Amino acid sequence: MRIVMATALALLPGLAAGETYWQPTLEVNYGQNLVKDYSTRQEAVVGIDFEHRQDAYLLKFDSRLSYDFVYSGEGRYSPADRTEYQRRLLLDDVYVAWQNNDVDFRLGWQKVAWGEADELRLVDVVNPVNYRDFILIDLDEQRQALPMAKLETALTEQVSLELLAIAGYQSNTLVPDGGELAFASALPVSISDNNKLEFGLKLSSYLWDGDAGFYAFSGYNDDPVMLASEPQAEFAYLLHRYLMLGASYSKPYDSLLFRTELARTANLAVPHLTTDYALIDKWQALLGVDYRHIDWTFTFQLAGQYLHNHQSELMVPQFEPTYTLSAERDFLSGNLIFKSAISTIPTNGGGVLSQIKSTFKYSESLHMKLNLDFMSGSSRNSIGQFSDRDRAMLSVVFYL
Amino acid sequence: MKKTLLAGFLISSFMASAADADSVLAKVRDRYDGQDYISDMTLTTKTKGGGSSEKSMYMLQKDIGDEEFLFISVQAPSDVRNVGFLVKVFKETKQIEDEQWMYLPAFRKVRRISAKDKRGAFMGSEFSYFDLDKLRVADFKSTIVGSETIDGRDTWKIERTPVNQDVINKAGYYKVVIYVDKERDIVLQQDYVDAKGIVFKKQQSLKVELVQDIWTIVESKMVNFTEEKESHIKYNKTVYNVGLSDGLFNIMSIKRGVDKSDVVQLTMNHSN
């Protein structure tokens, strides 16, 4: 990544010559557990979105620095939780790019979104995620930027190719013990290995009046695996290289838009009762339907995963569907955005997540957000386990 | 016999009138507007309480073969910066719905959107997606009902009624009265009628200028009488026949966006 820094420095003397955009922000977030009535977040965040474009070169720096006062003093959270979340630097995009009409080459910390799914990850496997907010926030907020080289180029008028090489493995980041939305006893909360490179390829095309994508990703398990045969179940990161091959397609029909994805992940490590873990093939499929009616957009998604050659000793279900339903529209000339969503995972006793997300744009420089998250279901279910963690999150964002 | 003759006369007059209206509208639709253009656009919406919001964007258009491509890249305010729209419009005779894509930077994804329902507000304004569409002649049954003077210009007054429920569902209008400048083949005013027969929206072309020998609407206003809101679109600078590359009108480009430096570069050798 020294190359990113060197190129950035080389561009700096020419700042006056090119086109510069910068937008500092100040954000205040307050979270409240609605079941047990305590504060979960008292966070101040400063952010900067900076871009400098000169000829075909672009320097991008979009990052945030946060301090959470909820960890000040002796509180309910663990020292590990405080260490992880009291001060945070969040890199969204820090890269240099060379761009023209047919080529877009970027080098630096980036987030990559693949596929047609809304807030679900089937072929969207490039970046690891941070589980601090579980699935309560937008997926792009969960994504962790990775240092990578990414080349996107138009092969023909209707076909484009994306190639990426990630400079080292980074796991998902788990919530430390004692954290508000901790769901696994695992330390360390994340690992990285600069010697383990990951590679991706995406081919996009316009096919039969629809948009098609083909994906290949070779990487390592982002989540730790529970070693169930140990006297006390422990978690471990097992760095087996896996290969994900996937496809996506979307096409409108009348007022509907159909979105589909199919992914096969080979050599994926999953917990096994007697042999600690097993390497299996996982299939995932998605069917999504969007319906637009004047200013409303309604979305339904069914996603499912199926484990090939499933054995009874495996500690994961053979078939696990997820259903999501959402409705969204703008009011007050686009100044009030309202979204309501329900997600349910019926396996392991079932669990339901109900959300209301609203944004009010008081002015161009002052926005307020209120998110309400309600979780219910069995304690064995990935959503239901948080049924006492219903929360309200209020954010005020100043565009300075 | 007299009744039959009268009826025949009325029918033939009506058909002639309808044909005339269609040919007037076809001239508007097919009016030369360059092989391509770039426009620097400002969209302002004023609400009932006196509130106001402004968005700035670049609009790029190009005819590629039989198809017309439109690319809108939003520049400001910050929260919608780099939102992109790409629209592919087919020749009306092909009877194919437009194809539309939208890029939302917050999700980092280009999403296909259905073009069947265009009643939604464009960027929260009083202009709907339908209002910004290329004029389609055959979607409405059109009749010239007279001539009127609008802002000192002699215009054809044409009443248009949707040919079927699908068009009503797409446009949201039960009748449109359109005023076409007889000399310049430009729409100067449109009155939009709802299901109750009430004019609830009115569009006016406030300023028309000759840019590179092409009559160009440089300011347009849409008033919504029901909501008591109005939106203005100002085309601050339009440059025709820039020589835009076909490669600007694809999904890769709307992800990248267009900014001021691109526009300066693209229009370097052109001036109004």
Explain what the structure shows.
- The complex is a heterodimer of chains A (400) and B (272).
- Chain A is mostly beta strands.
- Chain A contains three helices and 22 strands.
- Chain A has helices spanning 2-11, 79-85, 139-142, and strands spanning 19-33, 38-54, 57-68, 87-99, 103-110, 146-154, 159-166, 169-170, 192-193, 198-207, 210-220, 225-227, 234-236, 241-253, 256-272, 276-293, 296-308, 319-331, 336-345, 351-363, 366-377, 391-399.
- In chain A, the strands form three sheets. Chain A has an 18-stranded antiparallel barrel.
- Chain A is globular and about 65 Å long.
- Chain B is built from four helices and 13 strands.
- Chain B is an alpha+beta fold.
- In chain B, strand 7 (140-150) and strand 8 form a beta hairpin.
- Chain B starts with a helix and ends in a 6-residue tail after the last helix.
- Chain B has one domain (2-266): outer membrane lipoprotein receptor (LolB), chain A, CATH 2.50.20.
- Chain B has a 13-stranded antiparallel sheet.
- Chain B is globular and about 45 Å long.
- The model of chain B is unreliable at 1-16 (pLDDT under 50).
- Chains A and B meet through strand 1, strand 2, strand 14 and strand 16 of A and strand 6 and helix 3 of B.
Low confidence ranges of chain B: 1-16
Largest sheet of chain B: 13 strands, antiparallel
Kindly give the count of domains of chain B.
1
CATH homologous superfamily title of chain B: Lipoprotein localisation LolA/LolB/LppX
Secondary structure tally: strands of chain A: 22
Approximate strand percentage of chain A: over 45%
How many DSSP H or I helices of chain A?
3
Roughly what is the average pLDDT of chain B, rounded to an integer? Answer: 89
Note the quaternary state here: heterodimer
State the name of the first-level CATH class of chain B. Answer: Mainly Beta
**Structural class of chain B, please?**
alpha+beta
Q: H/E series of chain B, N to C? A: HEEEEEEEEHEEEEEHH
- Tell me the span between the first and last alpha carbons of chain B: 62 Å
CATH topology of chain B: outer membrane lipoprotein receptor (LolB), chain A
Alpha plus pi helix count of chain B: 4
Q: What's the arrangement of strands in the largest beta sheet of chain B?
A: 6-5-4-3-2-1-13-12-11-10-9-8-7
